[in-house]
Write a structure and sequence with these properties.
about 190 residues; Porin; 2 helices; elongated
Length: about 190
């Protein structure tokens, strides 16, 4: 896992150095609400196209035997209807990550079968389409709203309690629904 984050960090630094066109460094504000530090970089590919790479990492143990440890990475190609880093865009994204989650009661939709006293650990991958809008705040700062939906597969091992080490078996959960949501603040590099 350390090698993955080292590669991701080197990629971001390398990308920022070699870019002669516009780029933006961003963070998803609501993701911080899940105690997940996150960072992304978006680079211009042309007048109306950009590519974003972003990721988040939560290594923290929460009170009351709750786990939300995970890392998640996104890659997204975006087509802008007017000009890059301004206005409406449509995207095609892929995602992947690993998780160790337990102690949560989520009584709705795809997650209603999760048991509060159980723990789930595994990996996920998927992709989808997105729509977003970016507002220019000033010469260097932008604000972005993005929503996306698609498909993901969760491969996991279930444990009977949040602290137990005995596996109850492996399974795969297929998911169709929201796959991306962000309110991001962006610093533009010109």
């Amino acid at each position: 896992m350390k090698r993955t984050w080292m590669f991701f960090g080197c990629f971001l630094l390398y990308s920022a150095v070699i870019i002669s066109q516009t780029a933006g460094i961003k963070t998803n504000i609501p993701y911080w609400g899940l105690i997940t530090p996150n960072l992304g970089i978006e680079v211009a590919l042309g007048k109306k196209a950009t590519f974003e790479v972003s990721g988040g990492f939560n290594p923290f143990t929460l009170p009351d035997n709750k786990y939300l440890k995970h890392w998640l990475a996104y890659g997204e190609f975006r087509y802008w209807t007017c000009e890059k880093f301004n206005g409406h865009f449509f995207g095609l994204h892929g995602l992947g990550g690993q998780y160790n989650v337990g102690g949560w009661d989520i009584p709705f939709w795809h997650f209603k079968n999760l048991k509060k006293d159980s723990r789930y650990q595994g990996y996920a991958y998927g992709g989808g389409i997105s729509y977003g809008y970016q507002w220019i705040l000033n010469n260097r700062w932008n604000l972005e709203l993005t929503l996306g939906g698609g498909y993901a597969q969760f491969h996991y091992e279930k444990f009977p309690c949040t602290k137990c080490g005995t596996s109850q078996g492996k399974d795969v959960h297929e998911y169709l629904g929201p796959t991306k949501g962000a309110i991001s603040i962006i610093y533009i590099i010109k």
